[in-house]
Fold these 3 entries.
Entry 1:
Amino acid sequence: FQLVTQFRQALETGQVKVHYQPKVALPSRQVLGVEALVRWRHPEFGRLDPDEFVPAVEAAGLVDALTGFVMDQSLIRVRKWLDRGLRIAAAVNLSVRSLDDPNFPDRVAEALERHQVPPELLTLELTESGVMADPQRALPVLRRLHTLGVTLAVDDFGTGYSSLAYLRQLPVDEVKIDKSFVLGMGTDLGDLAVVRSIVELGHSLGLIVVAEGVEDDAARDQLAAMGCDVAQGYLISRPLSESRLEAWLQARTTQA
Ligand code: G
Ligand code: G
Ligand code: MN
Ligand code: NA
């Protein structure tokens, strides 16, 4: 696939950029972190979203280069914020392929050391379907990542077929409710029930519960009333380029 042969070069020539979407505490709205979301500005095809190229990058065995790039960019930001007295975490999306690589935890440790970022300010997000497809295979790498002190999050939770028993066995710290349920909860009692039970289940397992897809005040207030810990979504902010994120943070922190 032609795209893939261009990908390494795209990383080097600045065509690939990381955007960041804020995550805020409920009910305080304090900024706790950002999720890093990769974008590729392709010279011919224009803006490519991850769904359009990440699967090809994975299939070509280049996911290490992608994850390494996104992690480096994110840790540079976190370090800059620390230097300004701000403790803001960065969340990086992992491909399940990364968990097949026994050296992945060492590379994470090396990146944290190189950027002088404490491990608790890095979150690694794995999709529910990815981890649960073969939890026994994922477990050794997850355990080593957890031992490093990074935060591990299960993304898109509620969309897979995982049993709650599996979630209990994984060394994870955070569960992210899939946005489809959060988007539907204002009009669909079934979605509302799913959101409510993930919040309760997550808390009973001692996990931080994050809601994605928070698009309006009603959803935010309802989530806050349920005790959901963190909100992410267009209501708070769309994913932003580095410079727009800085402007957004500036406006937030001078307001407070
Ligand atoms: O930002 P957007 O909605 O287009 O993201 C679509 C999907 O791409 C999401 O599921 C997200 O987790 C995934 N994604 C975004 N950035 C990365 C990345 O750096 N690595 C991997 N593996 N997936 C990513
Ligand atoms: O799978 P993952 O959760 O990593 O994907 C995050 C994706 O969700 C990003 O591509 C982002 O653009 C999108 N997203 C973030 N907030 C919202 C929202 O409030 N509504 C909708 N519809 N999509 C969102
Ligand atoms: Mn994610
Ligand atoms: Na998600």
Entry 2:
Amino acid sequence: MTDSEFRPALLVIDMQEDFCPPSGALAVASGRDIIPLINRLLALPTIPLKIATKDWHPPNHVSFAANHPLDDGLPPSSSSSSPSSSSDANPHPKPTKRPFLDTTVIANPRNPSERYTTRLWPVHCVQHTPGASLVPELDVSRVQHVIEKGTSPDVEMYSAFCPPLRDPKVSDSGLAALLRENGTTHVYVVGLAGDYCVRSTAEDAVREGFVAYVVEEATKAVDPGLWEDVKKEMEEKGVRVVSVDGPEVR
Ligand code: VGL
Ligand code: ZN
């Protein structure tokens, strides 16, 4: 392979307070520990393009368990749901579904039979809140572009490229076009969470025609117990999971 065929980009996914201990609303265990390594990657002069993403939800986002009344008439898809309180502000909150479970949502309000299953989460990364800010230790001075995703209230969006089902209601994030404008051939995906946004972004990168690496030490999973399986599934889709200590990769 000639040098002209290797133009890498670094994609730093969702390094935000809400995904980090000690106080993030959806803290990923050890999520803060990967910041020094990500800063080392950000400092590499051999990577010409560095992009960070932010999960950037409106308060009424579909992925928040607190936005799903228990009695919405839609079947839960996993486990049983029991009431959870939603907000301190309301003295009589309507019981809502619990976070960390899958639920059925209506994809198209004009056609309620169009449904899909998605995982519910605690309220996190609400636009303009402290929890949505990038962690201050991250060396953002090296980042040329910040991409916001998950901004449409009724669409969950793990991938930094575009929503699942390529929903026509939601505009593409512009990431693929940005990479192409820069002549990018290979992407290195790092950040949080390994089993959700990092994974979806890397898989979409392959679909978009890029060579995609996930740097294993530079990510952490919401569910570390499933990480080995997630890695296999990513690799089956053409993502290359690599180690910073491994052989030099191209
Ligand atoms: C993410 C769950 C919900 C992520 C975002 O960044 O991996 N996970 N929203
Ligand atoms: Zn989110």
Entry 3:
Amino acid sequence: MERVERKDKTRDIARDKPRDPSRQPPTGAPAAGSEPPAGAGDRMRDLISLCKRRGFLFPSSELYGGLNACWDYGPLGVELKNNVKSAWWDALVRQRDDVVGLDAAILMARRVWQASGHEAVFTDPMVDCTACQGRFRADHVTEELGSLEVCPNCGARGTLTEPRQFNLMFKTYMGPVEEDAALIYLRPETAQGIYVNFQNVQQSMRLRPPFGIAQIGKAFRNEISPGNFTYRTREFEQMEMQYFVEPGENERWFDYWRERRWQWYVDLGLHPEHLAWHEHAEDERAHYARAAVDIYYQFPFGAHEMEGIHDRTDFDLKRHQEYSNKDQSYYDDATKRRYIPYVVETSAGADRATLAFLCDAYDEDVVEGDTRVVLRLSKRLAPVKVAILPLSKKPELAAVAREVREVVRPLGTTQYDETGGSIGKRYRRQDEIGTPYCVTVDFQSLEDRQVTIRERDSMRQRRVPIAELRATLAADLAS
Ligand code: ATP
């Protein structure tokens, strides 16, 4: 069973004491890693099967037996995840005056990870079973079974090795020679790319605190026990924003950002009762962190972290100042004060958020005696906005239907489906992928130049002139 309790390793080390595995359960939700509700396994199985069948997600390298904990987003998955990322970018960057974007390289100087603490301490304790060769996170086993006496896989006693610290960063070598001097890492988080560009961005954009730098990008962690579909993978995408403020202003901005980030999920359709706060207890936090809170989502396999919001003080910029020997302070010419800004960070996973939106949207109801699977995704996130369905393959209908597709194409991703099957079956196929609107072209359309709009959730149908179709759908999609 998957448990989620690892925190930022650099924080643990900065505290200079072993990580405390006891994490408070989120308010109003089951404890992290708690037994999933009955039927949760079926729900996950149904969702995973839908994702594969309908082109959302495929196991990486499936042709060669798959690569553990890596996933490929198919044609609909990439649309959905792009919509999640673009909704984040819109809320964090485009709709604001005080946040700018960045796209830093994945490969960074090794010194960055020495300064951040990752090289020394981005570790998890690992144990091996000498009987079944299983490999586990020691803290997971202790929490699940109370001790390291019994192997959680084969049940053998006394076969688990002593815990060893395992660094989660993937190593590689820069250039042709595999020597220690050429060692670099795939970044385990995007945040450091922002910290090391603080001066570049501040100066080139002439920014004054408070301001933020946002970034979306891949991160890599050699997780010991990945799993739960795309929840914990070895290659994933983060959406992180570092907000630089004057010391003393951090508390206010922390409160501001935690509310903003919660609301973002709700605005995009997550049921608020499936969300919960997990406040980090004082002994859970690094000594320098003033506050830290996670947003948990009630996944079918338990309540787990989706995003963290942290008040990191001036720790990161100070460390980079120390290791690079370059001044990281900001001079405020209005107040004649020089200071190293404090940072409030919002750190989300694009894959975890996408999974949460999928879990929350998955629904089944009964229509005309048959079970209908429907993804009730918000219109902003739905991978296909409008599907055009000619009632038959007859060329005269196809001509008008193709014309209708061009009318709606500017509204976003559209699908044209004239494949066999009744119109009812084709509606079901669109419901299953979350398409909010279907447009049906029938023989009547040839005479009156009107088409039928059918809504996913209410299944209501209405006739609309083709001349008004785009404006009508644009208004509906924006509502
Ligand atoms: P966890 O305790 O689940 O390992 P974390 O506290 O180590 O997560 P952070 O380092 O705070 O995570 O990373 C910020 C966000 O990045 C997480 O909230 C999550 O959404 C995402 N993330 C982290 N690790 C993974 C992973 N292995 N797979 C998918 N997403 C991840």
